[in-house]
Amino acid sequence: xxxxxxxxxxxxxxxxxxxxxAPVQFVRGEGARLWDDEGNEYLDFLAGISVLNVGHCxxxxxxxxxxxxxxxxxxxxxxYTEPGMRLAQQLAASSLGGKVFFCNxxxxxxxxxxxxxxxxxxxxxxxxxxxxxxxxxxxxxSATPQEDKQAxxxxxxxxxxxxxxxxxxLTAAVGPxxxxxxxxxxxxxxxxxxxxxxxxxxxxxxxDRHGAALVFxxxxxxxxxxxxxxxxxxxxxxxxxxxxAKSLGGGLPIGALVTGPKLAGVFAPGDHASTFAGGPLVCxxxxxALAICSxxxxxxSVRTLGERLAAQLAELPFVASVRGRGLLLGxxxxxxxxxxxxxxxxxxxxxxxxxxPKPSVLRLEPPLIVSAEEIxxxxxxxxxxx
Length: 386
Description:
This protein is of the alpha/beta class. The chain has helices at 4-14, 47-50, 59-69, 82-94, 106-120, 138-142, 147-150, 167-173, 197-210, 280-293, 296-314, 339-350, 372-383, and strands at residues 26-30, 33-36, 41-44, 100-103, 125-129, 160-163, 178-183, 186-187, 193-194, 213-217, 241-244, 255-259, 319-325, 328-333, 352-353, 355-358, 361-364.
């Protein structure tokens, strides 16, 4: 096993400085558990930032990867392979009933969505909400109105309009020049903030009034994370497209743009492409992950366990409030409590993996296969910090 100090030296000498890594080397995972290079066991309540909804090394996903890897891993989108066609069919059927474009990440899925709506309404503006996060590539970053993320890379892509999370403000921002409204049902990086139904209804009505598209970024909220397969299914609104990624591949990188019928015919051959997207290996893994996350009993468990976790977190002395849906929870800390300090202490002292999207907010999103006992254990570990 490579020593942590050697890995840190290799990083310093060879990797661009884009991450602040915690001083831990993980070497194995199973379910909601991780183990480091010294054999210490950790409880994972971050799930790779909602990538591992089916848990670490889910046996069904591992078996699918092994079987497919032994037969065929890549041929490009110039030819047919079955897993991608089957996955597209199941994604469309489980959501909006339109068509699918595959890519490799959430940012890429949002880039595809931006191109799609701009082709549908040439030169149209994209309306986004304050505190949104849609990715770090240039189009997705331009849709992410967070000063610390945007400022170093200006000028950005033009044509984005930022509005407050207010129904009247959103309604006023949408007009004949609008190509789309792009939003998250729950703003993850914005502090785990669910959007009110009133705001979603205003977005739907404004888009319908002016012929604009309504796109929901379900990169973090999809695949059962909120207690339904897609978060929009808990709202009174059906969007015209959703973007999906993170947990879709069961641990492998894949993203997808899924349209409803209205936008299914916009793209033509040559409009967009991705070399690795929709390959047989990752799509075989994604077929298993989607099947697991679609199980009604699992989704019911996510809702029940989410309520259990939220109720227990709210009782902690350093917690002001808890918000979110299902097993995507944001913990607003009491005044003066540093979320980043809690994250580091949880890792080093309690072997609990969580993170902090904001300086005063903890984010907890365990694998969906987590047990009630593990929920209780995680809260007990947090309680010992306070």
